[in-house]
């Protein structure tokens, strides 16, 4: 594999074409591979860890393919981008199916609390949280470069991460409650929304990731 | 501030072209699907929906090529519907680059399809389209085959049922209003939207920007879908969003 390659980890849960397509669009000729091979993940310069579906299925499939060690190794020293369930899987535990995650970040993945799902005008908020919502940048980060604070990104999820260490929070969003929509620490950035489906703001974030030198 | 209400242009596609007509007659050519999808993306559309209305099965694969080409250039969610009958059909469209797949007649004929597809690809990818007609005051029934067949199902009950089966979203079309430009059936939209927890997209009857705003504020829809007002340049998506924002509706601008 060529140096500078970007590996998108494929553990068999859903379609990664959108993620691959958007990365290729901003990769400026660099190789982007969708792979289920731990060796390819290990050899990549940067790793994208996406996810969709239910977290228990995602954890099961990740282990069934023997990808856990390669993902944990990448999260230790490579530029690493978690997307959606890929963000949630980095935490210790999820309320979705009461399942353990990878434990890269301390904290819980929680479901939106039904009793808080009303907006300021008293209208009921639906779960899943689906559509374009604002991401407040709670601190500067290389991946926010060129993206307006409060820019809208596309979300589809019913669970959100609740980190123990608030210092890792990089972005927050309001949906009934304020929740953590992005976390970052050292070489890791992980986001709840789908940058690959978030038009210009999302493409800018992916481009920033490809150039990022943590 | 919070979640924005979505505006979704819908493209009826047959034999590789976007067409628009009333009840499948008097189809007018509205252009190249990729070009139109790109234009809507540039105008700030929140998603794009392709509805494959190709009649003959030998032309089915054309839509896959369109989806592939669109997904390579347009980085907003893409929903594709029309002729989806099996989980394999769902997978083919997702693999081509669709983010969500919409099913209608097949869901009525075989509700297990909704459950199976949802279990395999996740409910966020599964949209159930409901075509409803008013049959008595405050009562709507589900029709299939472009509004010709009455299934006898109550639209509100069916909406609850598909949510339970695993639909992630409902695309609700009023067959009474579709093509009329008289506005959404707001009572229908509200009845369905209030009955379910998943998002509801209002469709059928949009003739002006007021109709779009009404769909959200009166119909309580989470998203509004329209075709002809955008295709023939009457309004841009941006104009629609500006109009909605002036009326206090939160949009992505």
Task: Write structural notes for this entry.
The complex is a heterodimer of chains A (214) and B (253). Chain A has 214 residues and is α/β, with parallel strands linked by helices. In chain A, 25% of the residues lie in helices and 32% in strands. Chain A has a single domain, classed as Rossmann fold, CATH 3.40.50.880. Chain A has helices spanning 17-26, 38-43, 55-64, 68-77, 85-88, 199-211; strands at residues 6-9, 32-35, 46-49, 80-83, 91-94, 99-100, 105-111, 129-134, 136-137, 152-157, 159-163, 169-175, 177-185, 188-191. In chain A, the strands form three sheets. Chain A has an eight-stranded mixed sheet, sandwiched between helices. Chain A has a four-stranded mixed sheet with strand order 6-5-7-11, covered by helices on one side. In chain A, helix 1 crosses helix 6. The longest helix of chain A is centred in the last third of the chain and has 13 residues, at 199-211. The radius of gyration of chain A is 16 Å and the shape is globular. Chain B has helices spanning 33-43, 61-71, 87-96, 105-109, 112-121, 155-165, 186-195, 209-217, 228-231, 237-246; strands at residues 6-14, 17-22, 25-31, 48-52, 78-81, 100-103, 126-136, 139-144, 149-154, 169-174, 200-203, 223-226. In chain B, strands 1-4-5-6-7-10-11-12 form an eight-stranded parallel β-barrel, surrounded by eight helices. The longest helix of chain B is centred in the first third of the chain and has 11 residues, at 33-43. Chain B is globular. Chain B starts with 5 loop residues before the first strand and ends in a 7-residue tail after the last helix. The mean pLDDT of chain B is 92. Classes of the chains: A alpha/beta (214), B alpha/beta (253). The interface between A and B is medium-sized, with 37 and 33 residues.
């Amino acid at each position: 594999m060529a140096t500078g390659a970007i590996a998108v980890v494929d553990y068999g849960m859903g379609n990664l074409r959108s993620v691959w397509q958007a990365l290729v669009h901003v990769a400026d000729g660099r190789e982007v591979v969708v792979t289920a091979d731990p060796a390819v993940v290990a050899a990549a310069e940067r790793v994208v860890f996406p996810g969709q579906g239910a977290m228990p299925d995602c954890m099961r499939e990740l282990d069934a393919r023997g990808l856990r060690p390669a993902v944990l190794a990448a999260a230790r020293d490579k530029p690493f981008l978690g997307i959606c369930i890929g963000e949630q899987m980095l935490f210790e535990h999820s309320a979705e199916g009461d399942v353990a995650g990878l434990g890269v970040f301390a904290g819980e993945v929680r479901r939106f609390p039904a009793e808080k799902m009303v907006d300021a005008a008293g209208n009921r908020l639906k779960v899943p949280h689906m559509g374009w919502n604002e991401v407040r940048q709670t601190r500067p980060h290389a991946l926010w470069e060129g993206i307006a604070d409060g820019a809208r990104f596309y979300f589809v999820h019913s669970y959100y991460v609740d980190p123990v260490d608030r210092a890792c929070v990089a972005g927050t969003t309001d949906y009934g409650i304020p929740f953590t929509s992005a976390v970052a620490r050292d070489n890791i950035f992980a986001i709840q929304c789908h940058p690959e489906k978030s038009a210009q703001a999302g493409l800018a974030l992916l481009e920033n990731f490809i150039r990022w030198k943590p | 501030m919070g979640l924005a209400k979505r505006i979704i242009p819908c493209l009826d596609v047959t034999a590789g072209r976007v067409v628009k007509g009333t009840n499948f007659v008097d189809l007018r050519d509205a252009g190249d699907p990729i070009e139109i999808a790109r234009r809507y993306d540039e105008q700030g559309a929140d998603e794009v929906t392709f509805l494959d209305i190709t009649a003959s099965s030998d032309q089915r694969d054309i839509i896959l090529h369109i989806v592939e080409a669109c997904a390579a250039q347009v980085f907003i969610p893409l929903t594709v519907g029309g002729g989806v009958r099996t989980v394999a059909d769902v997978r083919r469209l997702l693999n081509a680059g669709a983010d969500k797949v919409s099913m209608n007649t097949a869901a009525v004929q075989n509700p297990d399809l909704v459950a199976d597809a949802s279990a395999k690809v996740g409910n966020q990818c599964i949209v159930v389209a409901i075509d409803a007609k008013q049959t008595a005051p405050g009562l709507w029934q589900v029709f299939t085959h472009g509004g010709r067949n009455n299934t006898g199902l109550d639209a509100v009950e069916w909406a609850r049922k598909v949510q339970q089966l695993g639909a992630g979203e409902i695309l609700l079309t009023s067959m009474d209003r579709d093509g009329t430009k008289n506005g959404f059936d707001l009572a229908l939209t509200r009845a369905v939207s209030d009955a379910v927890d998943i998002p509801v997209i209002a469709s059928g009857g949009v003739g002006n920007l007021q109709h779009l705003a009404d769909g959200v504020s009166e119909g309580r829809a989470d998203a509004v879908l329209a075709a002809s007002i955008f295709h023939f340049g009457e309004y841009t998506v941006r104009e629609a969003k500006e109009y909605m924002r002036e009326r206090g509706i939160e949009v992505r601008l």
